[in-house]
Every structure is written in C-alpha cells, then in structure tokens.
Amino acid sequence: MKPFVYNALPARVIFGSNTLIQVSDEVKLLGGQRALVLSTPNQKEAADQVAKLLGDLSVGCFYGAAMHTPIDVTHEALNVVAETKADCIIAIGGGSTIGLAKAIALNTDLPQIVIPTTYAGSEATPIIGQTENGLKTTQRTLKVLPEVIIYDVELTKTLPSQMTITSALNAIAHAIEALYSKDANPLISMLAEQGISALARAIPVIHRDPFNSNARSDALFGAWACGTCLGAVGMSIHHKLCHTLGGSFNLPHAETHTVILPHAVAYNEDAAPQAMTCIARALGTDNAAQGLFDLASKHGAPTTLKEIGLSAADIERAVEIACASPYWNPRPIEANAIRELLTNAFNGVRP
Ligand code: NAD
C-alpha cells in the first residue's frame, strides 16, 4: 500500500425515492425557521413545490440561478436573503443552482440543504466557481460545503435524455481523475470505481427508458460517489481543459466534459496504467478511452468540439491557456501533445 493522506468531509446524505417530503424535517434539524428556495427559471415549478412542502418554514423563492454563478445574480439573491431575513438556503436543481446556494453561503455562512436534479456532483464538494466580467475563478473552502444533501430519484426522471448522458459523463470524469490524482487514496479509489460502474450500467437503460427507477437510482448513486471523489482529491488535465473551454470560450459544461474525456484519458494512458485497468473494468470494456468514446457516441451524446461551439481558430489559444498554469497531471503537459488532443476532440476522432 502506498502512503496516503485522506481528509474526510462532513455531510448528511438522504438518498431514496420521494425523499423530498423530508425537507421540512431537515430544515427543523438545522434549526431553520425561514428557508429561501433557489432554482433556475426552468425549474420554477420544482422550487414552488418545495416552498409548498415547507409551508410556514418558507420565506419564498428566488428563480434566477444561472450557469457559472455570475456575481450579479449572487448580489441579487443576497438582497432577497436580506429582505426576507432567510436563515437557511435550499437549492433544487443542477450545478448552477447549487453554485448559487454556495455563493450565498460564502457571503453569509447560512446553512444549505441541496436537492440535486442532475449528476454534476457539486453538492458533495467544498468548491465554488464564480464568474465576474467574463472571468471564472474557482476556490475551495469548507464555508461552501452543503450541510445536507437530499437525493430524490424521482426528481431526476425529468432530466432530458441528452443532458442525462452528458451529465453522467461529467460525473464519471470526476471519478476517473480521482483514480490518477496525486492525492489518490484507497477509499476514494474504491468509490470512484463504484461510481463509474453504476453510471455506465445506468446510461444504456435510461437511454431506452428514461423513467426506469432502478437505472435512475444507480445513476444518482453514481453521481454522489463521483461528486465525493471531486470533493476529496485534486483533478488533472481533463478538468483543466474543460475549465479552459467553459471559462474562456463559453462552451456548455456537461457537453464539454463528454467530448474531452476520452481524449484526456488517452493522453494519460501510458502514465497511469493502474487507473486505466480500473476504469476499463468499471466500464466493462478492454480500453478505457475507447470505452468512454463509445459510451457517448452510442447514446447520442456529442463527440466533437465543433458541434458544441468551438471554432478551429480557437484551438491555439486553448492550448496556450491550458499549458500556462497546468494542474498536476500524471503525464507532463506538453503543448504539442495538448494541441493534438484538442484537434482530435475537435474532429471527434475515436482514440
Ligand atoms: P445546470 O444546473 O446548469 O442545469 C442545466 C439545465 O437543466 C438548467 O436549466 C436546469 O434548470 C435544468 N435541469 C436540471 N435538472 C433538471 C431535471 N431533473 N429536469 C429538467 N430540467 C432540469 O447544469 P449542471 O451541468 O448540473 O451544472 C453546471 C454548473 O455546475 C456549471 O456552472 C459548473 O461549473 C458547476 N459545477 C460545479 C461543481 C463544483 O464542485 N463546484 C461541480 C460540478 C459542476
């Protein structure tokens, strides 16, 4: 056994179907009396349902959450927190809504109950990314780690088919980079393999039958496992490239993860053989990078950067940004090899 350091994060996790009805009890357990519910404009109905369940414990809803946690939206929400004297924040939605809850917690220290409806994994991390003047900056602080996560499988059944696949591959990316992280440790590696396996098993079933309860349950468990990996250890080239493409070229989050992942894994193939064996085993394939590419392409997910909004002329600038302050990676970051990776991802070449 290699030496390791493991930092456990505190979390209360409620997992199941129709668990949403426990939300009032969770507010009371936290000592809350005035909960503000957050959502995106798309999930207004879900937020209203939470407020209804809370009854007198709710001071209302804020429906303005947006992708990449823009600072002006946070200021608007902070005004509502002050006006309503909210003492507790409830987020129902994906990483964008949970990002807003974290931004409020960063500014106010209010406790958060988060109810994830995608597989992005933000609920299990002490990480917050915020955007101001077109620049996204990320920080890690326990101030933003949600106190309670309520996973309700029923809420994920409405996630559209393509978003389901790309969000699941976004989750798998966290577990993959945890397996070859410089902070890798045996507990997180076990969780990573379980998470990849649960999501890979669920994707084909959900693709055929979006309302399948067992597959939706496997996928949500996988999202928790993979999100926990993201919260516990450092990420590498895959996440660096996705942050570059999302932050500087405004590419969509989950789709970018889906397209880049097979190529980032191929980049690290020779440098992280043990991780590759583990990923391939979890996917049920012989080759990790090819298995990931096939998982996306067989289920209608994008496989090229050009179809999700990058132009060929952007590749050189993306290489520069990704190589300027690289995250630790098992294989050294070389500009020529990164250019080749991005060109392959741009054209959707099977690794
Ligand atoms: P999202 O939260 O932006 O959701 C995408 C859209 O789908 C939204 O309109 C949302 O309302 C809708 N939606 C979500 N769940 C739904 C459901 N079950 N049914 C119908 N519609 C639904 O997307 P995301 O990929 O979950 O989150 C992306 C954001 O999260 C990015 O800003 C990313 O940086 C951040 N993120 C942060 C972390 C972290 O640890 N800090 C981790 C992962 C992602």
Q: What Rg, in angstroms, do the CA atoms define?
A: 19 Å
What small molecules does this complex bind?
Answer: nicotinamide-adenine-dinucleotide
The percent range for strand residues is: 5-15%
Which residue ranges are poorly predicted, with pLDDT under 50 across at least 5 consecutive positions? none
Helix content: 40-55%
The coarse silhouette is globular
Q: Walk across the major sheet and give the strand order.
A: 1-8-5-4-2-3
CATH architecture of the largest domain: Up-down Bundle
Overall pLDDT metric: 97
Number of domain modules: 2
How far the N terminus sits from the C terminus, by CA atoms, comes to 32 Å
Strand element count: 8
Report what the structure shows:
This protein is of the alpha/beta class. It folds into two domains: 12-156, 3-Layer(aba) Sandwich (Rossmann fold); 161-347, Dehydroquinate synthase-like - alpha domain (Dehydroquinate synthase-like, alpha domain, Up-down Bundle), CATH 1.20.1090.10. The chain is 53% helix and 12% strand. The protein is built from 14 helices and eight strands. The protein has helices at 23-29, 44-54, 71-84, 95-108, 153-156, 161-179, 186-208, 213-232, 237-249, 253-268, 273-283, 288-298, 315-324, 335-347; strands at residues 12-16, 35-38, 58-62, 88-93, 112-116, 127-132, 135-140, 148-152. The protein has a six-stranded parallel β-sheet, sandwiched between helices. Strand 6 and strand 7 form a beta hairpin. It is globular and about 60 Å long.
